[in-house]
Design a protein that fits this description.
By secondary structure, this protein is of the alpha+beta class. It has 4 helices and 10 strands. The strands form 2 sheets. Strands 1, 2, 3, 4, 5, 6, 7 and 10 form an 8-stranded mixed sheet that branches.
């Protein structure tokens, strides 16, 4: 969740691999039958101790690392509405950063590649020349529900049978695909 306060964005420093010690946008995996808004609120509270109001989807990213990982990452903007700021179990620390500080973190290689791409897309840091083109996403919640479609298990896609998608941030086997929510 891209949470902004007083012209600064909240990031967390990862406390586990991959990317141990790098700064990330707090978030995590969607649970089965959980809405995107519920996931965003739950994950942000778990990671930061803060309560949020989800505003809109602001960026989509894809992480493909064959043979075992393919994630679709959905970034949303959010307003912090309460809670006590603290780093959750997956983070070493949390902090708000100004644009110039984000640029410094990017220059020092302290951001994960996906976070750097997202912050560039959102205009918080300069975009990398080899960055993928931005994905256009809907801005109203009704459009978002229609735009994010997950095929049912064993659905026919392009004439072939695909394995069912599993939505769990708790267990990841080599057979599992995950929709990740940030």
């Amino acid at each position: 969740m891209v949470a902004e306060k007083d012209g600064r964005i909240l990031l967390g420093r990862r406390g586990k691999e991959p990317f141990y010690g790098k700064w990330v946008i707090p978030g995590g995996g969607i649970d089965l039958f959980e809405t995107l808004t519920e996931t965003a609120s739950r994950e942000f509270a778990e990671e930061t101790g803060l309560k949020i109001r989800v505003e809109q989807i602001v960026h989509l990213a894809e992480i493909i690392s064959p043979p075992n990982e393919h994630r679709i990452v959905i970034y949303v903007s959010a307003e912090v509405v309460g809670g006590d700021a603290r780093a959750g179990s997956d983070l070493l620390e949390i902090n708000y950063f100004r644009r110039d500080q984000l640029e410094q973190l990017a220059a020092e290689g302290q951001l994960t590649p996906t976070v750097q791409q997202t912050l560039g897309h959102l205009g918080w840091i300069p975009s990398s020349p080899n960055q993928l083109p931005a994905v256009t996403v809907p801005t109203r919640l009704a459009e978002q529900r229609a735009a994010v479609r997950i095929p049912p298990p064993r659905a026919r896609i392009s004439g072939e049978i695909r394995r069912p998608l599993k939505f769990s941030s708790r267990r990841r086997g080599s057979d599992e695909r995950q929709l990740t929510f940030w």
